[in-house]
């Protein structure tokens, strides 16, 4: 699960404080009990491992082990990427079925893609 603060946020400092509290405060995590997934901060995950059931404790331990051997997570997809990928599939199908020429398909991809991902 990704959390972010949009550039258009009216009060980005307050949003950052809220996210910091939501993700790192032990009392918040005691309430959530892993409902939003395994806590990423080591201290929060270790604290929660003493409070969750056996199955979730094993999941927490696995994430701790995996995080020591994993690379950095990929950035989230940009806004509009789902719509863009659907459009690519649709245009590719039109090209393959010879409903539009390759040049026309590429033109549609570029024009519509720039509109979607602006």
TrEMBL record:
SUPFAM superfamilies: Periplasmic binding protein-like II
Gene3D superfamilies recorded: Periplasmic binding protein-like II (3.40.190.10)
Descriptive protein name: Putative ABC transporter substrate-binding protein YesO
Species this chain originates from: bioreactor metagenome
């Amino acid at each position: 699960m990704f959390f972010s603060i949009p550039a258009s946020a009216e009060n980005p400092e307050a949003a950052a404080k809220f996210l910091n509290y939501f993700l790192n405060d032990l009392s918040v995590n005691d309430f959530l009990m892993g409902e939003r997934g395994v806590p990423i901060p080591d201290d929060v995950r270790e604290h929660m491992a003493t409070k969750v059931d056996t199955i979730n404790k094993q999941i927490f331990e696995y994430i701790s082990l995996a995080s020591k051997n994993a690379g950095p997570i990929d950035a989230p997809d940009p806004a509009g990427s789902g719509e863009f990928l659907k459009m690519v599939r649709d245009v590719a199908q039109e090209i393959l079925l010879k409903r539009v020429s390759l040049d026309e398909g590429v033109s549609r991809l570029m024009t519509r893609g720039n509109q979607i991902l602006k």
